[in-house]
């Protein structure tokens, strides 16, 4: 997954420079396997918009972005050529 993201996604950014509109790859438990879009959380900080198969019913959800030993940051990518806010 990381090899594909590095080849086809936007410019790689650091964890400290991530912002709303960037894509993020996280590892759930052991392997990088989850991709989401960052947004501004309603109560400050960042949130992640992602598909959740643990939601009932499974659906796309937005949750506060929090890292732990079970959900680890792997990489983030920005898309400077895309104007998300000019729509």
Please give a structural write-up.
The protein is mainly beta and 87 residues long. The protein has one domain. It contains 1 helix and 6 strands, in the order αββββββ. It has a 6-stranded antiparallel sheet with strand order 1-6-2-3-4-5, covered by helices on one side. The radius of gyration is 13 Å and the shape is globular. The mean pLDDT is 87.
Describe how the helices and strands are arranged.
Elements: H1 2-8, E1 11-13, E2 23-28, E3 31-40, E4 46-52, E5 59-64, E6 71-78
What descriptors fit this protein?
six-stranded antiparallel β-sheet; 46% strand; mainly beta; 8% helix; single chain
Summarize the structure.
By secondary structure, the protein is mainly β. The protein has one helix at residues 2-8; strands spanning 11-13, 23-28, 31-40, 46-52, 59-64, 71-78.
What proportion of the residues form beta strands (DSSP E)? over 45%
- In the sheet with the most strands, the strands line up as 1-6-2-3-4-5
Q: Would you tell me the structural class of the helices and strands? A: mainly beta
Estimate percent helicity.
under 10%
**Tally of extended strands?**
6
What's the main sheet like?
6 strands, antiparallel
